[in-house]
Amino acid sequence: MDNLLNQIAGYKNEISAFTAADEKQVEEFRIKWLGTKGIVKATMGEMKNVAPEQKKEAGQILNEFKQFAEARYEELKASATGAVQTGFSIDISLPGDTMPLGSRHPVTLMRNRIVSIFQRLGFAVAEGPEIEDDWHNFGALNLPAHHPARDMQDTFYIQQNPDWVLRTHTSSVQIREMEKGKLPIRMLMPGRVYRNETVSARSHCFFHQVEGLYIDENVSFADLKQTLYFFVKEMYGKDVKVRFRPSYFPFTEPSAEMDVTCFICGGSGCNICKKTGWVEILGCGMVHPNVLSNCGIDPNKYTGFAFGMGIERPAMLKYGVNDLRLFSENDVRFLKQFTSAI
Ligand code: PHE
Hints:
The protein is α+β, with helices and mostly antiparallel strands.
């Protein structure tokens, strides 16, 4: 009986220590221990050698041993099948899922195009906050409180602090650059701006602008015109004609709006240009002396020009997009149609 107990303890250790790498080894385990010629059966056969008064106890021990071997077999079986399944999910020979290739947003493409043209003239890029204080968005730009021209731009005010607005133009970044006091300045200010307008196919409560600023000694209106001529030729082609119309902005004097011959109909008149043959593309002018002094720049020594244009409209015309809202809906079917290196 003691012999038998020792033997069973040894078997149990062996069974516990056994591991199977695959189903084949599990099957080998079954044959060795639980098969018709297996060790468990053979050990059960030892019953006949046990003294009659110990048979009851021996029976229990042998049964328990059998259950032990069977339980281990189930365990090995479960983990071996699991292992095979895990093997499947990391099968490195399977072809991978292709990653969808993104594309740049059409507004970004147009922004980059505009920026790269001016960069060739030595303009650097400056950015600033979209939540602005009243001073940078209005005050410093010669738009004191209650100035009627504030109504030109329907403004979103921040409820908690009416001194803060969502910037209505990136001219606020021009102020921030001028305040730094490093002259000359030749900078572009691209960015998102906000105006409280009803969302429709033709207008939105936010859109994007590129503004530009050049300040140095002896900067003249002729410099402004030459810079913008260069831009138009690069952007819309050599044959496009340009005209300046006198206009009004509180922060520039004199001010102008610039039109180009309609790049859809070539000037003969179509729906895009409302049959006029001209499309307005930007506002510009010589920086108002008050704006320079507001930023600590001596207007007797320095002059400068500024201009500002929207990005969405040229993007709509270039890509034939007829609804402004498409730019902000993040519909992949729309966005994936735009591919470009820049
Ligand atoms: N800030 C003007 C706008 O938002 C554009 C502009 C910039 C006009 C610079 C003149 C000079 O519409």
